[in-house]
Amino acid sequence: MADLQTVVVIGGGQAAGWIVKTLRKEGFDGRVVTIADEIHLPYERPPLSKAVLAGDADIETVRLVDHDAFAALNVEAWQPECAASIDRDDQAIATARAVLGVCTPYAEIPWFWSDQYDVNLQILGDIPANAQPVVRGDLHARRASLFFFDDANALRGVIAINSPRDLKVAKKWMSQASAVDLAALIDTAKALA
Fold first, then answer.
1. Average pLDDT over residues 123-131
2. Which residues of 68-103 are buried (b: 16+ CB within 10 A; e: fewer)?
3. Considering Cα of 77, then 83, then 88, then 90, what sign does the dihedral take?
4. In the chain, where are the structural domains located?
5. Nearest Cα residue to 158 out of 184, 187, 133
6. Which class in CATH covers the domain with range 111-186?
7. Which residues are paired to 161 by β-bridges?
8. How far is Cα 22 from Cα 24, in angstroms, rounded to an integer?
9. What predicted TM-score, i.e. pTM, was given to this entire model?
10. Which CATH code for domain 6-99?
11. Are 192 and 185 in contact (CB under 8 A)?
């Protein structure tokens, strides 16, 4: 863990509490951030949901760590705050690698999506501010993808409108730094591969 500088823990329950306590106990002196959608320090959920909410116990009795001990752990608690999204597959792979001592930077391509009535919008990558889109499909019919390239003609980003397959292929191209044939890209009679 010598190269690891920051650990982010999503959640504020019992597992989060044990993770931050164990990191510090085992000597991790890097930055630790917790992101939890509540105002309480890490706690045990079953007693909270039963005894505390019923009024039979005080909230302090279910905390894994009191305020002073938590402050001593030197944890940045982003509370109340929500994680916007997580990639469960890549998160599991990164965790398994870290457990095996293979610490590689998390380099997932940024991705955002939104469903708005009859429009599925997906955005992938880091779109250069001055880039002109190469359009595949029909924007007026709300089924198109806009591909953005940098000055070296490397694919940097995609906006897919009701075109999830285009985005999936573009992600593969971007991950592999593949060259893209622009003529084939705009020809909707040809499937992207």
1. 85
2. eebeebebebeeeeeeeeeeeeeeeebeeeeeeeee
3. negative
4. 6-99, 111-186
5. 133
6. alpha beta
7. 121, 144
8. 5
9. 0.51
10. 3.50.50.60
11. yes
CB distance 14 to 42 below 8 Å = yes
Q: Which two tokens stand for residue 105?
A: 């930077």
Closest to 11 measured CA to CA, from 48, 52, 41, 31? 41
DSSP state of 101: T
**CA 8 vs CA 30, 42, 76, 105, 144: distances in Å:** 11, 14, 9, 14, 36
pLDDT (tens digit, 9 = 90+) per residue, 63-81? Answer: 778 888 888 999 988 888 7
For 93, phi then psi, to 5°, come to: -65, -45
23-79 residue pLDDT tens:
888 888 888 988 888 787 887 766 556 777 778 877 777 777 888 888 899 998 888
